[in-house]
Design brief:
heterodimer; A: mainly alpha; Fumarate Reductase Cytochrome B subunit; two-stranded antiparallel sheet; 8 helices; globular; B: alpha+beta; Uridine Diphospho-n-acetylenolpyruvylglucosamine Reductase, domain 3; Enolase-like, domain 1; five-stranded antiparallel beta sheet; 13 helices; 12 strands
Chain lengths: 252, 329
């Protein structure tokens, strides 16, 4: 199976055309196989007692951060639908919707970067060497975010930046209300941009499948609830987090 | 570069029944090529730019041939030749616009074998694409015609989305003006597609000219009686009058009562990736008389919203003039 596709440019030289979209089935099947195996493994384990969601509540996510998350989620879904559906044969006028959603995602990510740099505790999401002990010591509880969550965030951040930067460059190649399309890139450079855009998209599809799965798992569902309502209970905090590493001071 | 001294290896099927043709189209899907008169097909094969595995020749299917009267207008089989359409009495008496358009397709020799279905579903004529370059329309990621050095004199001034090729069909604009319906069949049944939605632009599907899917066959075109006997105007401007594709063409159908225009459908070819309706002009014409004053009034509307490329600004005054000629008294 090819990772990239190639074409001959106007001079007959072979140049990169983009990612091979035959990989699409792979990035859907592989996460689902993993999900099935993980679900079976989890079902076979003895159930831990679920902490109560009642009682005192503490704030996990501010409203503005929840809004960012769901705006980003919505724009990513629109981008995937408008980007991938035409490839699998569902044709509609997708391009304008795609770039509008791309601008929404870009603005959301810029907002998030600025906010996390100046108004949030950046370290709470940064992978520190001490976090790696969570791999070997399963009794070790994380701070605000587990190593898995930090790893997912870092990977999604890199892929999202990759898809945004390549997308913005490709954006200059089409007509918009602000400029006429440009032909400034060589065919090889254009092919590389399409390749990076496609690779990042495929990886994001796989990660989003996993993200949704873990967000819906019974033992993790309170995280999804906190991304909607903002809070977790004191019991959930105590059961899943180390108060020395994360001690939220805001009660709800 | 591929060898040009032998025919490419293609399986030829010549079904005599529609069911057999549909089964073949379904079996081969994207690898099948529906063959009418072959006037678009053979160029592709000669240049080795397309590589179908199977060719499904529809010419042996009698049901796909001829002009038939129906309860509400006429139905024309997809493999009816353009010459048969030009000479058909009913078409000439009631839908002259189609006869005029068919009469301006290519040359007499091509009209003798070229079919209505083939003319309607023919591929783009952009030479970068026809040459076999991997442009957007060929599944690539660039438009050679819309580059600083690109030769784009014949290309689109409306509705371009990455690809700037135009719809080359003369009969397509007549069909849209006559509000025709395309009958598209597959093994799953029949689909009726209004002519205006039959042709798709690059924003919707950049590698196709029509909304037909693999396994489907255009079997007939139905023209409703709505525009029978209306006032028609067709004009095509090309580099060579004897045999060329339109630089700009116009097909107009107008309901005229005592010199006053009622409803109208005015469609242009050679300016967009699909037949381009002049809706602003149609609205402006309602209630106006056929006159030079009306022509002057509506002409600027024809080029409204146009985005010419480096070498095709000339299409704008040409388009306006064709609209003038269509509506003057």
């Amino acid at each position: 199976m090819e990772i990239a596709t190639y074409k001959n440019d106007v001079w007959g030289r072979e140049v990169l055309l983009g990612v091979s979209w035959e990989l699409l089935w792979l990035v859907i099947v592989v996460p689902f196989v993993f999900i099935a195996l993980h679900a079976i493994f989890q079902a076979s384990r003895r159930k831990k007692e679920k902490p109560s969601s009642g009682g005192e509540r503490v704030r996990r996510h501010d409203g503005v951060d929840r809004l960012f998350h769901w705006v980003m989620a919505a724009s990513v879904f629109v981008l995937l639908i408008t980007g991938v559906f035409p490839i699998i044969g569902i044709n509609f006028s997708w391009l304008t919707i795609h770039w509008v959603a791309g601008i929404v995602l870009t603005l959301a990510v810029v907002f998030h970067i600025v906010r996390s740099l100046f108004w949030q505790d950046l370290k709470s999401m940064w992978i520190a060497p001490s976090d790696l002990r969570e791999l070997s010591d399963t009794t070790r509880k994380p701070g605000k975010y587990s190593l898995a969550q930090k790893g997912m965030h870092a990977t999604v951040a890199i892929l999202t930046l990759m898809v945004i930067i390549s997308g913005l460059i490709l954006f200059a190649m089409i007509d918009t209300p602000w400029w006429d399309r440009s032909n400034a890139l060589t065919e090889a450079t254009l092919g590389m941009m399409f390749f990076l855009h496609g690779v990042a998209t495929l990886a994001l599809i796989a990660l989003i499948c996993l993200h949704i799965y873990f967000g819906l798992r019974p033992e993790k569902l309170f995280y999804t609830r906190s991304m909607i309502s903002g809070w977790i209970s004191r019991d959930e905090l105590a059961a899943n987090h180390d108060p020395k590493r994360w001690a939220p001071d805001k009660s709800v | 570069m591929a060898s040009y001294d032998v025919m490419p290896d293609v399986q030829l099927y010549q079904p005599a029944e529609m069911d057999d043709a549909l089964e073949l189209a379904d079996r081969f899907g994207r690898d099948g090529w529906i063959l009418g008169g072959g006037q678009d097909t053979y160029g592709w094969l000669k240049d080795r730019a397309k590589h179908p595995k199977a060719m499904i020749d529809l010419n042996g299917i009698e049901a796909l041939r001829g002009v038939r009267k129906s309860d509400d207008g006429i139905e024309i089989g997809a493999v009816t030749t353009l010459r048969e359409i030009i000479r058909n009495e009913t078409v000439n008496a009631e839908y002259e616009l189609l006869a005029l358009a068919a009469g301006r397709v290519a040359s007499p020799q091509i009209r003798n074998v070229g079919t209505l279905g083939g003319n309607l579903s023919q591929d783009a004529r952009c030479w970068y694409y026809r040459r076999g370059l991997a442009c957007y329309r060929a599944g690539g990621n660039i438009c050679y015609a819309d580059s600083p050095q690109g030769m784009n004199r014949e290309h689109a001034v409306f509705g371009a989305s990455r690809c700037v090729a135009v719809s080359p069909s003369d009969t397509a604009i007549a069909m849209v003006a006559l509000d025709a319906t395309m009958v598209v069949q597959s093994v799953d049944g029949e689909r009726l597609v209004p002519a205006e939605r039959f042709f798709v632009g690059p924003a919707t599907h950049i590698t196709k000219m029509t909304s037909m899917r693999p396994g489907e066959i255009l079997t007939a075109v139905r023209i409703p009686s709505t525009w029978a006997g209306a006032r028609f105007y067709f004009e095509k401007v090309a580099d060579r009058d004897v045999w060329d594709f339109a630089l700009v063409s116009i097909a107009a159908a107008m309901q005229v009562d005592n010199g006053t225009i009622g409803d109208s459908r005015i469609v242009c070819g050679g300016v967009a990736c699909t037949p381009h309706r002049l809706r602003d002009a149609e609205k402006a014409l309602a209630g106006k008389s056929l006159s030079d004053e009306t022509a002057e009034f509506v002409a600027p509307l024809a080029s409204r919203g146009a985005k010419p490329l480096n070498y095709n600004h000339f299409k704008l005054p040409l388009l306006e003039n064709l609209l003038r000629r269509a509506v003057r008294g």
